[in-house]
Automatic annotation (TrEMBL):
Belongs to the protein kinase superfamily. STE Ser/Thr protein kinase family. STE20 subfamily. Keywords: ATP-binding, Kinase, Nucleotide-binding, Transferase. One of its GO terms (molecular function) is protein kinase activity. Gene3D superfamilies: Histone H3 K4-specific methyltransferase SET7/9 N-terminal domain, Ribonuclease Inhibitor, Transferase(Phosphotransferase) domain 1. This is Serine/threonine-protein kinase PAK 3. It comes from the Eukaryota. InterPro entries: Kinase-like_dom_sf (IPR011009), LRR_dom_sf (IPR032675), PAK3-like (IPR051931), Prot_kinase_dom (IPR000719), Protein_kinase_ATP_BS (IPR017441).
Length: 717
């Protein structure tokens, strides 16, 4: 515990901060390795906890993040830990990744093996959750942040920390089976994408949910009986009835997997999971940049989006496939990166004999195989291909020849040896047969896809699609987590039937320059929940679509979403959400941003639409003449932060209300609505106006009214 030990580490950068202190990356002086250091405040009194930490240091397991040392330095506990350049399982959850049951079995097995090690040393983990589960490239899940000092006051914990705590832990009676409970809750979150206590915003509500909801369980029927039984054994409320780690290791759900992983020291299933996730992250990051023409197929819903094809970015061509993500510069004829790694070891201008028949490659070579730009010759010394090539596969861009006459057959973009992207096909006389976009060696792609119930478990979206039609009750499984349409650059029309996409939590239609129509039926995008949590990001975005004219959403859709943003859609003329004649409950607790819509003429929000919103902004709608609001639409939630902004609606003449509309906003900005002459407010509208303070005051409840037609007399009364 000598504080001089601190001199052995050169601190490099901060990795994170939380209630358990600060985590830094550091270099171990005199050793060729990086470490992670967690610093936790220490008052010197908890000798028992310090003893436990020293015991935890002796826990050595492949399934634990190793503690190299623990010591006190300047009233801080320093944990010197193994540094892992990898992902936590929390990153998968945040990316809306759908785990298979096989993957969850392997994850559970690794976690149990790690817990078994520390429990055998009479040490509790005390902090089991996806954020503390690190998954390595060779397919091992390691538990980290175990045996940390207990928080003396749970009110100081982030509310999300409480969601993983066992009932007895909330009463300060934690034991080894408390870790089992936390593992069960974590598995539910990984399986269903949401913690069962999500929405509980304090300790009291978390405890209340535990008492009233029975025990948490897997809610979806895709899971096997064995998996459900395993999870139930983890989250039994009564400690005596809950399985121990040793008992769980004998459970048939994990028995074979745990023995296999322990003996083989890794899981090929999890190694493949990490590999695919790395490709997923890399592709998503590349597509967020300035990408031009794309010809991509997205295999969906398996493992979120899986892209296959070609994307352009300036002079670069990016090839995306299941195995490789290749970036190449056509102008420089240079291979830049493969799977995110820069290609610095490539040898240039190499003549490489490929076989005994005389075929050869002249160009870039890595590890004695073609790797970059070059020319391929056949056994008769005829040019067959010039372009990028890795191994025996043409990639990214090149031109193939009719070898007997030396005439170009095809020139353009390539993916996995197939014509893919922009390219031209020529006949033997050099005449153009086809010039345009290719996909999977085909130049005629179906521009319309209609998703039926029978085939919704594996849908191919590609960038040449112009129409997407979804039949009733399709795509309603838990594997559908997100619907990102922004890469469908040619999409003109999206029509969704009733009761579709129940588990989708993100709908993103941004920058679609050809999109004209969005029509969504009843009761879509609305997985049932016990409570709402405003901090969750369940969002609908329709932004920067310059020719979209129509948005219609049937009643009941997006009920539990928290964000609705419709912005910068220059041609949007009609926006209807829900029905004014029937209870609709669209976006019940969502905030609304409706801005910069120069062509919008009418807006209809049905009954109970945005009824518990915190913030609603209607701004820069120069052509809107009428707004129709159903019963309880834009009612607002009782919250000091609730805010209504209506600004720059110069042609608004009619505002139709029903009871409870505009009932509870605390902050109100009404500006530039000079023609508003017909607005019969319900008696309870703006009920806080009696204690408002006009601009310049310090109240949390304030109203700013500038040139607002009939509203002016209302607020001046």
């Amino acid at each position: 515990m000598d504080s001089a030990c601190a001199l052995n580490y050169a601190q490099l950068e901060t990795l994170g901060e939380g209630h358990h202190g600060t985590v830094l990356k550091a270099s171990s002086v005199g050793e060729d390795r990086d470490v992670a250091i967690r610093k936790v405040a220490y008052d010197g009194y908890d000798k028992r906890r310090l003893k436990k930490l020293l015991t935890a240091k002796t826990c050595k397991s492949l399934f634990l993040v190793e503690y190299y040392d623990v010591f006190v330095h300047e009233k801080e506990l320093w944990y010197i830990m193994e540094y892992l350049q990898t992902y936590t399982l929390d990153a998968f959850v945040r990316s809306r990744i759908a785990f298979s049951e096989e993957e969850l079995r392997e994850i559970a097995s690794c976690c149990l093996l790690g817990l078994d090690s520390i429990h055998n040393h009479r040490v509790l983990h005390g902090n089991v959750k996806p954020r503390n589960m690190f998954i390595t490239q060779n397919g091992v899940v390691k538990l980290g942040d175990y045996a940390l000092p207990l928080q003396e006051d749970y009110s100081k914990l982030k509310v999300e920390e409480l969601w993983y705590m066992a009932p007895e832990a909330l009463k300060w009676k934690e034991g080894p089976k408390s870790d089992v409970w936390s593992l069960g809750i974590s598995l539910i979150e990984l399986a269903e994408g949401r913690n069962p206590f999500s929405g509980c915003d304090n300790e009291a509500r978390t405890g209340s949910r535990m008492r009233t909801m029975g025990f948490p369980s897997l809610s979806y029927d895709r899971w096997s009986f064995l998996f459900k039984d395993f999870v139930n054994a983890c989250v039994t409320k009564e400690v005596n009835g809950r399985f121990s780690v040793a008992e769980l290791l004998c459970h048939p759900f994990v028995l074979e997997a745990a023995e296999r992983i322990e003996s083989g020291m890794c899981s090929p299933v999890l190694a493949n999971l990490v590999k695919r996730f790395q490709k997923h992250v890399l592709c998503e990051n590349l597509l967020k940049g300035e990408v031009g023409c794309c010809c991509l197929v997205s295999h969906y819903p398996h493992f979120c989006w899986f892209h296959n094809g070609i994307a352009e970015a300036s002079s670069r061509v990016i090839e995306m496939s299941e195995e490789l993500v290749i970036e190449a510069d056509i102008r420089l004829k240079e291979l830049l990166r493969v799977n995110g790694e820069e290609m610095k070891a490539i040898q240039h201008n190499v003549v490489l004999d490929l076989n005994d028949d005389g075929e050869r490659w002249e160009g870039d070579v890595l590890q004695n195989k073609p790797y970059g730009w070059g020319v391929l010759y056949d056994s008769e010394n005829r040019m067959v291909y010039e372009g990028f090539r890795i191994g025996d596969v043409n990639v990214c861009y090149g031109r193939s020849y009719y070898p007997d006459i030396g005439v170009v057959e095809y020139e353009g973009e390539i993916c996995e040896g197939k014509r893919w992207g922009r390219g031209a096909l020529f006949d033997r006389n050099g005449n153009t047969v086809f010039e345009g976009e290719w996909m999977n060696h085909e130049c005629e792609m179906e521009k319309r896809v209609e998703i039926q119930k029978e085939v919704d478990d594996h849908v191919l979206f590609h960038t040449l699609l112009e129409e997407v039609i979804v039949s009733d009750r399709c795509c309603d499984g838990i594997e559908w987590k997100v619907l990102r349409l922004s890469f469908l650059f040619n999409l003109r029309e999206l029509r969704v039937g009733d009761e579709c996409f129940w588990y989708v939590e993100e709908v993103e239609a941004v920058g679609l320059k050809k999109l004209e129509t969005v029509v969504i039926g009843k009761n879509c995008f609305r997985k049932r929940r016990i409570t709402w949590n405003r901090n969750e990001r369940l969002f609908f975005w329709l932004k920067n679509c310059p020719v979209v004219k129509e948005l219609r959403i049937g009643r009941g859709s997006f009920q539990y979403y928290t964000v609705c943003e419709i912005e910068n859609d220059d041609c949007l003329e009609v926006a209807e959400i829900g029905s004014v004649r029937e209870s609709s409950c669209n976006f019940s607790c969502a905030s609304l941003e409706l801005k910069n819509l120069p062509a919008l003429k009418s807006l209809v929000l049905g009954q109970d639409v945005f009824c518990f919103c915190v913030r609603a902004v209607l701004e820069n709608l120069p052509e809107v003449a009428s707004i129709q609001l159903g019963y309880s639409a834009l009612h607002f939630v009782e919250d000091d932060a609730s805010e209504l902004v209506m600004r720059n609606l110069p042609n608004l003449t009619t505002l139709s209300f029903s009871a409870l509309t505009f009932d509870l906003p605390h902050h109100i900005t009404l500006e530039n609505m000079p023609k508003l002459a017909n607005a019969h407010l319900p008696a309870n509208a703006f009920q806080y106006k009696d204690d408002v303070i006009i601009k310049g005051g310090f109240s949390f409840r304030s109203v700013l009214c500038l040139d607002v037609g009939v509203f002016a007399s209302y607020f001046s009364s």
